[in-house]
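Database export, one record per block. Field names are fixed; values are copied verbatim from the stored entry.
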Amino acid sequence: MKRREFITLLGGAAVWPLAAGAQQPKQMKRIGVITPFNENDSESQRRVSAFRQGLQELGWTDGRNVRFDYRGGAGDPDRIRAYAAEIVRLKPDVILANSAQILLALQRETRTISIVFVQVDDPVSNGIVSNLAHPGGNITGFTPAESPMGGKLLQVLKEVAPAMTRVLVVLSVESTNQSGMRRSIEAAAPSLDVKVTTANVQDTAGIESAIEAFAREPHGGMIVMPNPVTNVHRGLITTLAVRHRLPSLYRYRYFVAEGGLVAYGVDPADQYRRAASYIDRILKGEKPGDLPVQAPIKYELVINLKTAKAIGLTIPESLLLRADEVIE
């Protein structure tokens, strides 16, 4: 079990200055950043802090040789599309895009401005890049998972809750790139004696109705896919999961730190740190299409024992021993 890490964000790191009235030095570079969160979201601040730190270590200092235009989509598709158009009009040297929904909105606006993405599943099969080794065009980035990962997610949840015979996969109607992950879960389900139900949600009402309807029958569990909608409403989702005693798996630790049961996936802040290195190379003249899309270095398993107790579930000792972190 490893100790919880607490990150102090000084000076509101996630809220970056927008257009300044003063004349900027000629060498000043401009970076646009669009995330799916509210601007004051703690997870967004953690990621942005990691990104800024990564750039600072590479010699890029806000206000000296680089400026930022930051936008938070708050899980709203209309706002995300508007911000994508707005950022492109500002003509930055490079854009950092978090999520497929944001990336696709940017693709509709530009095919020339360099874009580095993070947290985008299956970039090849979804037509975002031509291949991982040589993506081509104006886009490259860091993917957290490919489609076969879906079967592993279901396998981990079944280990956590062996009595589970039904699983609700919570997606967003706007995040079409997660269909491959869903199909992978469905393909693995028969061998684990699990029936799969899918819920495409886009707001609070849709989340509540989908989970409450599914929870009416026994032996259920839930896999929640990360996207702008589920990220913003993660507090509601984890609360409903506990209320209805649904063993639930999430892709990222921050869901579990805020009351979810189990997470299996990458650390998003690490992808932000790694993205800083690509943006550094692009600002120095390299083309994004020549930089390979990078896969995860490590997956982490995180378990919340307090939540397990709240839903009346005993986590197998073998799984606790394999966990990277156990929250008590």
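Remark 1: The chain has twelve helices and twelve strands.
Remark 2: Residues 29-144+268-290 form a domain with the Rossmann fold fold (CATH 3.40.50.2300).
End of record.
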